[in-house]
């Protein structure tokens, strides 16, 4: 009986050691733990209700985190007024409503998937990076308005026990108001007790944020250009990451915070590596290339996945009911394409 027990525990010890070994890698002599890495997707909050079946589809790809994005609206880039829906109404998309966020979060949690709440501002005929007030008085009003917006979602995230709250996305022109951001972060922390992150644009924003020390993570919207050519090899795309990673590492060492790529993605077009941030257009359908997208995914993992400072990644974007529309062939989603297989292989390793 003793010998059987000894053999059982010996086998168990070996199996545990094997799991430990294969779930980690070594970079420059430092052990990198992949088991706790955030393997995420940017979940699209659509009109239709989500069921456990849609969550399960993502789970099978190794996904263990999702980010959800409700919206606030600014009519003009220089308007200090921010509108958002505190309560449900018939015009809201289900997935962006408080109830939709709650149900999606709970279903994800049931399947062992954690949640990031990542509210965005939608600016008419522009993007958040262009938001810039005409006066300091308007900036004060804007921060007051933005506080109402983000604190609403901080309360929701606290109530739903959502693990990470993103306090802003690509609000490039506002980051020079460091003291206003620090005051806002302190207010958020009195309401919400999970982890905080800010999602800074890859282009001349994340390097200039001075309040990373007040947050738990450095967030980067990682749409870095990887080439100036079309149909690039995985090897050349991997090489294209080197300078970007070097710059990220400088900021990471300065603030000693883990980095999360809060968004990263590539269209299914042969020129996707040149300007990855560009939205699909009608002309992109003629340039459709699933292989170019898959190559960019493979290069991402080869270049970055063993970096000890990288806490996780969220791929833009994932439709719970599948991609639709006239741009579907060129869309960012990896669903049903070779890129999905690449993502799953790396996430499940």
Blueprint (SSEs and pairs):
Blueprint: H1 2-22, E1 24-27, E2 30-33, E3 38-43, H2 52-59, E4 65-68, E5 71-74, H3 98-110, E6 114-117, E7 120-123, H4 136-160, E8 164-169, H5 178-191, E9 195-201, E10 218-221, H6 234-239, H7 242-255, E11 259-264, H8 290-304, E12 310-318, H9 338-347
Parallel strand pairs: 3-4, 3-12, 4-6, 5-7, 6-8, 8-9, 9-10, 10-11, 11-12
Antiparallel strand pairs: 1-2
Helix pairs in contact: 4-5, 8-9
Give a nutshell description of this structure.
By secondary structure, the protein is of the alpha/beta class. It contains nine helices and twelve strands. The protein has helices at residues 2-22, 52-59, 98-110, 136-160, 178-191, 234-239, 242-255, 290-304, 338-347, and strands at residues 24-27, 30-33, 38-43, 65-68, 71-74, 114-117, 120-123, 164-169, 195-201, 218-221, 259-264, 310-318.
Describe this structure in words.
With 349 residues, the chain is of the alpha/beta class. 36% of the residues lie in helices and 18% in strands. The chain is built from 9 helices and 12 strands. The chain has helices spanning 2-22, 52-59, 98-110, 136-160, 178-191, 234-239, 242-255, 290-304, 338-347; strands spanning 24-27, 30-33, 38-43, 65-68, 71-74, 114-117, 120-123, 164-169, 195-201, 218-221, 259-264, 310-318. Strand 8 (164-169), helix 5 (178-191) and strand 9 (195-201) form a beta-alpha-beta unit. The protein is globular. It starts with a helix and ends with a helix. Residues 1-24 have low confidence and may be disordered.
